Amino acid sequence: MVAYEDYFIDDVMILSPKFFGENFEKILDACKFIRDNKFPYAEQDALNYLFSKTYLKLPLKFDTIVRNQRLFFSKQRIEKAVYHFAGVKPDLNTDDIYNQLYLDYFMKTPWASTEMFGNIDKAVKKLYNEFQDNMLHFVNLFTERKRAFFVDQSYIEPLKNIFRIKDDEQIITLQEGTKRFLEAMNSANGEKLFFILSNPNDYFQLKNWLSSQNFVEGVDFIDAAVFLSERYGIKTPFETTNILQAL
To answer: DSSP assignment of the chain, as one string?
Structure first.
């Protein structure tokens, strides 16, 4: 209903407050239309539905999405722009120039206070306690379940050494397909925990698919990457995003 070149993201807009008063009924009707038709972006879709041909288009620098900058531009640099941290939020890795930018401005806000350090302390302790609970869970789980592995073919040899995989432990490759994997999980009948090692996007899709098949993460399957560090060439799954959000 809206032309591609006219669709806008409403995260960064210049607005006149009286605009909503003057268009209240129209906007309300559009919101009902968007809801009834189950369009995904709520007020953004409603505003596009009404005003995609009449709004003032701003240059892209007014809504520079950090995720896209990281994905599509090899040379990372900060320019004069409004940076939008859509999707994955910044963390405490200040080697990343966008995280550095975020924290530089965060330090100028009222939230950069002594209370901030208490929030860091609580967040770190929470992460530590969750990690300890998870480790105890797996220690106990292995008293009643055997291990099995579903991995990309290229990971098999290093994984055999890292996890000290025995000859009688089952390994299925991604190349054999998800149908073969599902058969193996059903055959295991709750007697095995499958370690999955693939790229993060593949794991996320597998997790959703397995959950739809009534398998439980942390009981029937687990992301093998959570047991690995950068020492093994795997980007560490430990993120400091939660700590930053706790500030």
So the answer is: ---GGG---TTS----HHHHHHTHHHHHHHHHHHHHTT-TTHHHHHHHHHHTTTSPPPPGGGGEEHHHHHHH-SS----SS-EE--SSPP-S-TTSHHHHHHHHHHTTSTT-SHHHHHHHHHHHHHHHHHHHHHHHHHHHHTTT-EEEEEE-GGGHHHHHHHTT--TTSEEEEGGG-HHHHHHHHHHHTTSEEEEEES-HHHHHHHHHHHHHTT--BTTTEEEGGGG--GGGTS--S--SHHHHHH-
Q: Which domain holds residue 33?
A: 4-51
Tens digit of each residue's pLDDT (9 = 90 or more) over 72-114 = 888 888 999 999 998 878 888 899 999 999 999 999 999 899 9
pLDDT for the residue 225: 83
Question: How many domains, in total, are found in the chain?
Answer: 3
Chain mean pLDDT for the chain:
87
Asked whether residue 46 carries a pLDDT value surpassing 90, the answer given is: yes
| CA torsion angle 222 236 97 241 (round to 10) | 50
Are residue 16 and residue 99 in the same domain, yes or no? no
Cβ-based neighbour number of residue 229 at 10 Å: 12
Q: What is the pLDDT of residue 34?
A: 92
What percent of the chain shows pLDDT beyond 70? 95
143 has pLDDT over 70: yes
Q: Give the whole-angstrom CA distance, residue 247 versus residue 244.
A: 5
57 within a domain of the structure (yes/no): no
243 within some domain: no
